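Researcher: Good morning. I'm working through a list of sequences from a screen, and I'd like to move beyond sequence-only analysis. For each chain I'm collecting a predicted structure so we can compare shapes side by side. This is the next one on the list. No need for commentary yet; just the structure.
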Amino acid sequence: MSARLEAEHLHKVFGRRPQESVERLRQGADREELRADGITAAVIDASFTVEPGQIFVVMGLSGSGKSTLLRMLNGLLEPTAGHVRFDGQDLTALSDRELRQVRAKKISMVFQHFALFPHRSVLENAAYGLAVQGVPRAEREKRAGEALALCGLAGWEKSWPDELSGGMQQRVGLARALATDADLLLMDESFSALDPLIRRDMQDQLLELQRTLKKTIVFITHDLNEAMRLGDRIAVMRDGRIVQTGSAEDILLRPANDYVASFIQDVDRSRVLTASALMDTSVTAGAPLCACETATRDTTFAELCAISARLSHRVSVVDEDNKVIGVVPRQRLVGFLGDESAEPAPCDSPEGKVIAHA
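Model: Good morning. Structure tokens for this chain:
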């Protein structure tokens, strides 16, 4: 079972007198003031929680501090201030030896550039983390083979890394992380070196694996559409600070500031938004239901558009008991497509026959 990850007021400062620099930041100094003194504040007061089984995406432009933040989560970088807790254990209080044990058994990392050993077979690469743990050869090869099969690489165990495509090499890296059965996966721009089609395939692969394995995952990316597609929750970073945390729908519909609003302006909202975000909830639960197609909270934007196109009135959204919990007006749908002029017919108009719930 995956465990909870907590980051509490994390700072990472490079340069002279880092503790003094943290105190300056706490008193209101900004990043540029410190930079003028030759000090780099890479991460400033970062706090968040990742619940068990969640994919938490940290998104930001180059230099925003996201990769530095990730490396503090498994102790590859020591925080200047703050705490990281995983499965109830304060990782920032552990010795180097204890940290190595945690990284070997509880936390796995998937890198951007595959990091495969060219002189080891695919199976040996996938089993490497288990070899570090001292797992006997027969067991580690069995577990590595199972992980490769999960990643769609059954039959490639005896191949060499240079015989694989980029996407297949990244699958080996993912299999290596899964083979250790670690509770926490840290993924640093893991798909950014791949071609767009292969990248989407890897996103699909990760989502499919997550439905089965339910790991706790922290995923770093600079690609907004990737973040929106993968993240159960998303943190947006700018200049070392987390400026907004929320679901993809929260960030798209309620950006915290002008920076986030400008950052998301080119996102394809139709791939992210669902009926739960678009519906008008001013209708009373259990209200009359149109005798026609309905939607659920999870109905996608594209599906809503298709349903709306077949109806002469707004789309009813129902819960598990088939009770109306909201409606999606056609005007709201076409508004997201850039045309605010269309007017939806009311649900009780002559175009929409109404039936009442029993």
